[in-house]
């Protein structure tokens, strides 16, 4: 079994990770075309972080999805699972042809992930705001049992409007969870418009710091910064004995110009002309 384990912090060139991020964008476009509606821009804002986590940072074993010593990853912003599924198939968690059934009747792959159906999915999603609480429980269990796996939780910035998130933040600091790392995909925009207009949640880093977390802010589209932050977070939680939050400043729809300036691609469908423009822009960048 050990030969199939993907160890933490693998040596992967940054350019390869950048191309993986753009491949995730292309696969998202392909899967939305199957469903005829989907979340483009929410995936595009975190594509670099998806790529860095799965292809470099996390300790995983795709041949044994429930391996007790794997690092856990919980997707709070579960509507971005359409960008997670192609990665799981690519790593070998399930056959690639499952992707062709995305959201079809009887498919394991829904708009939000189901941990009971999707190998490699550590917790389900639906109503937003629960996964940091679950991550606290998983991390606390590891601490009590003396296991060395890390628990990572990715949140959306709009998700921070849920009070349960802050109860979880308080609990994580109280229990000194030096094995819990959070990521806020702070893309500044939700379905209803700018997060700051709907319900302002800034300053994010200062708020988590006030709850007892160590924090850092990064450009979530700068792959070098993402990798460095993921590396330093693992060192910092152990050195300081408390949870750590990475606030990644991102842009919704990043990578496709006409998606970057409007909230309307949070959930939508590309017609043929727009699809050609989007795919062309991404493929041109990958070919450089």
TrEMBL record:
Assigned keywords, A-Z: Thiamine pyrophosphate
* Metal-binding in keyword set: no
| Names of required cofactors | thiamine diphosphate
Write down a Pfam family by its short name: Transketolase_N
Provide the coiled-coil residue spans: none
Q: Which domain of life is it from?
A: Bacteria
Report the family membership. Answer: Belongs to the transketolase family.
Name of the protein this chain belongs to: Transketolase
From what organism does this protein derive?
Sphingomonas immobilis
